[in-house]
Amino acid sequence: MATTAVGNPYVESSDLVANYPGASEALAERIDIVGVNPFADSAARATAIPSPTEGMMSSLNDTSAVERYDGATWKPVGGKVLQVVSVTKVDTFSTTSTSFIDVTDLTLNITPSASTSKIMVLVTLPLSTTTATNISTARILRDSTVVVGGGTAAGSRPSVSFATRLNNSGDNKAPISSTFVDSPATTSALNYKIQVKTEATVFVGAAYGSDADLSQGGRLASTIILMEIGA
After folding, report:
1. Sign of CA dihedral 27, 29, 30, 36
2. Apex CA 10: angle with CA 8 and CA 14, to 5°?
3. N or C: which end of the chain has fewer CB within 10 A?
């Protein structure tokens, strides 16, 4: 019986029937190493394969990720979108808080399947105000860290992701979008959320600054979309 130096064994036509069992066993062992075995999640995989061999492949049902063991860790195969999660807020939010507070129902969790993954963060945040000279700001946080568009804090100037200011009396609408690639370097659950603060009053999701019941007004959706990008 002949076998390839690497890869799957094969049986030559000249082999005796008696050699077939050995070839079949070797083939099964090779498939077990390089086959893509499905598991419910990484914990189930660790239980089934406590000592993986370099080159092993697996797929995880909870993240729909295909991963390869590189001899040290399981890594997603190819640089691609491994998962997408989103949240949309269709009602309004307003506050007069002069310190940052969470926007209700505008928070989203994601658990990266690998520490090498990037998280693409896409946010649409409609901000408006009706108070002259009012400055309102917002920021995007990963857990407690400002991650999207935030500049370096200096003195009393905090790191913020969005800002809007009304120069004259009247309404000011500022639907703002932001896209950012985050590198959390973890496989722990992450929480992304929006916080706002204002000098007077800030509205989120209102086309007309005060969300007045007028036909020329309207309401805008606020969204967060998170995409895990494999390394």
Report:
1. positive
2. 165
3. C
Same domain, 106 and 201: yes
Query: The tokens of 165 are what?
Result: 């200011």
pLDDT: is 14 or 73 the higher one?
73
**pLDDT band at 67, cuts 50/70/90?**
confident
pTM over the 0.85 mark: no
SS3 at position 32: helix
pLDDT band, very low/low/confident/very high, at 121 (cuts 50, 70, 90): very high
Same-domain status, 113 and 215: yes
What is the average pLDDT across 56-63? 85
Residues 137 and 160 sit within 8 Å (Cβ to Cβ) = yes
30 and 86 fall within a common domain: no
Residues of the domain holding 142: 82-229
191 pLDDT band (50/70/90 cuts)? very high
- Cβ(204)–Cβ(110) under 8 Å? no
Collapse the DSSP code of 96 into the 3-class scheme (helix H, G, I; strand E, B; otherwise coil) and give the result: coil
Q: What pLDDT score does 4 carry?
A: 41
Backbone Cα Rg of the chain: 27
Query: For residue 138, what is the domain's CATH number?
Result: 2.60.120.760
Q: In the chain, helix, strand, coil percent, each to 5?
A: 10, 45, 45
HSE-CB of 89 using CA atoms within 13 angstroms: 22
Q: In whole angstroms, what separates CA 64 from the centre of its chain?
A: 14
- Number of C-beta neighbours around residue 11 at 10 A: 18
Please report, in angstroms and rounded to a whole number, the separation of the first and last CA atoms in the chain.
Answer: 41
Tokens, residue 26? 């070797």
